[in-house]
Specification:
Number of domains: 2
Distance between the termini: 30 Å
CATH architecture of the largest domain: 3-Layer(aba) Sandwich
Number of helices: 6
Oligomer: single chain
CATH topology of the largest domain: Rossmann fold
Number of strands: 7
Radius of gyration: 18 Å
CATH class of the largest domain: Alpha Beta
Length: 173
């Protein structure tokens, strides 16, 4: 699954990237002219699912037969639940596949590339050689499974738990 999101869904874009999904975020694009039309056309041309909070974009997506979700909630964890509710079967486990900043592909840092890690002030020196690191092929950002990873998983587990309750309630209705 690949997504394109409007400017109102920046945090959702980041989280979808954390979950490993190729997600184009409107604010990252350089668009001349009508941005909404450009985004809808991009979704159509590349077979992306359009995620938006803009009713006009939804009308255009429906007219063109583009898969889409009108995202109602303003809070990102609730937005992830909305996707699941709309039967967008996203995996709720973080995957080091996409850069959360630029959407570039990540690759595992190889042995002998420690200088690249040392050049980044935010990389914990005590983890080098003891944990896996990934680097974005596009922007060079470094990723690893640190305490932030555990925090992300905890938030996502909460979404999973609440989503199970919602789905169970729907089945009994």
């Amino acid at each position: 699954m690949r997504f394109v999101t409007d400017r109102m869904l920046g945090k959702l874009s980041t989280w979808l990237r954390i979950l490993g999904y190729d997600t184009v975020y409107a604010a990252d694009l350089e668009v001349k002219g009508d941005e909404d039309r450009f985004i809808v056309t991009l979704a159509e041309r590349e077979g992306r699912i359009l995620l938006t909070r803009d009713r006009g974009m939804i009308r255009e997506a429906k007219r063109r037969g583009i898969q889409h979700v009108y995202v109602r909630d303003g809070e990102v964890m609730e937005q992830l639940k909305e996707l699941l509710h709309h039967r967008i079967d996203i995996n709720l486990e973080p995957v080091p596949r996409r850069c959360s900043i630029c959407n570039g592909e990540l690759r595992k840092v190889k042995e002998g590339e420690e200088a690249m890690l040392l050049a980044k002030s935010y990389v914990p020196r005590d983890k080098i050689g003891k944990t896996e690191f990934w680097v974005c092929n596009n922007c060079g950002r470094i990723y690893w499974k640190g305490s932030h990873w555990l925090n992300m998983r905890a938030r996502l587990n909460d979404v999973k738990g609440k989503n199970r309750k919602i789905l169970n309630m729907e089945e009994t209705d």
